[in-house]
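User: Okay, second chain of the day. Same drill as before: sequence in, structure tokens out.
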Amino acid sequence: MADAFEVQSKRGSIWHRWDPHIHTPGTALNNQYGGPASWEAFLGAVEASDPPIRALGITDYFGIEHYEQVVDQQRQGRMAGVGLIFPNVELRLGIETTKASAVNIHLLFSPHDADHVERIKRFLLEFEFSYLGEPYRCQRSDLIRLGRAHKPELMGDEAARSEGANQFKVNFDQLKQAWSKNEWIKKNTLIAVAGGEKDGTSGLRDATASFAAQRKNVEGLAHIVFSANPK
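Assistant: Same drill. Structure tokens below.
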């Protein structure tokens, strides 16, 4: 993905500002945006950023619908200074940290192939979650069904999708198997894992180190660890 920013320069290295993990309005979980003008506020903030943002990883849980929306906005003339927009699909593994949260893992996809959207959606269908004997796949319609199955009182599709995303968990071995058999995914995807204690691999520690092997398994699959810790 860095090829998009290869520049001939006599100055040597040139640093570009990237945000590989940014959520848009309408994100399935932890939506921090509100009001009818939330999309305009999001786009305006990106356009006004200083230093300018050159690459964005549009992030949502278990899907890329909001990535598609952002790309469509750029085609209409917004965020013209952003040279690279790519999808970042956030998954929750069925592995619990000591803070009682699921380990978060991210799939960062290259957007360069014309059919990347279709390929990504097909790949996500590999993940299946069972609830009360009913299988649910990693797609918007099934997340809505799962949300309503878990909380029948939910009326709107967005509320049901959010609840479905909150309940859906990906089996780590299923992720490894799906990854290993898809050559396009292996060539066009980077795996990132959260490194913190709440929802990352640092949370897989206890007094007897009983999760040490599991932590090595998860970090061994990842190309990137997201962390704000300088150490």
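The chain has eight helices and eight strands.

User: Thanks, on to the next one.
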